[in-house]
Specification:
With about 160 residues, the chain is of the alpha+beta class. It has two domains: about 120 residues, Beta Barrel (Small Protein B, Chain: A), CATH 2.40.280; about 25 residues. The chain has four helices and nine strands; from the N terminus they run βαβαβββββαββα. The strands form two sheets. It has a seven-stranded antiparallel β-sheet. A two-stranded antiparallel ribbon has the order 3-6. One of its GO terms (biological process) is trans-translation.
Length: about 160
Amino acid sequence: MAKKNDGNKVLAQNKKASHDYFIEDTFEAGMVLTGTEIKSIRNARANIGDAFATIRNGEIHIHNMHISPFEQGNRSNPSDPTRTRKLLMHKAQIHKLLGLSKQEGYSIVPLKIYIRNGYAKLLLGLGKGKKQYDKRETAAKRDAQRDIQRVLREKQKVAR
C-alpha cells in the first residue's frame, strides 16, 4: 500500500493574529480529538479565528476553536463544535510557555492547523498585543511595500 503524503497543508489559519499581535515565538502542539473531528479538519472545516489557549494544572487547552460536525458522522450524538480541547505538548514546553505568557501583555495565540505525519497539529504563537498605532504603522509599511512592487512591475513592463 502506498504511503499518503500529507505535505503539511495548512487547513485553517488565524489571519487576525499577525494583525493584532507581534508573534515572538512559535510552538507545535498535537490535539486530542474525538470521533469524526479529524475528518472535519482534513476537509478544512475548522475555524480558529476566535480561539485562544490557556494553561491550567500543567495542561494546555484551546477554547472557542470551531470544528464543524462531519456530515456522514454520528448525527444522533454530534460533539459540541466549540468545546474545549486538550493540546499535547512536552511538559518542559508547557512550563516555558507558561513562564513567558505570565509576562505583561503576552498571550498564547493559535496561528494555524495542519496535518503532519497523519496527525492534526496546531501551531501556537507567543504574541505581544499590538497597540493601535502599531497596527497603523504595520499597515503603512505594507502599503508602501505594495506601492514599491507595483512601480517596479510597471517599469519592467515599459523596459520590455
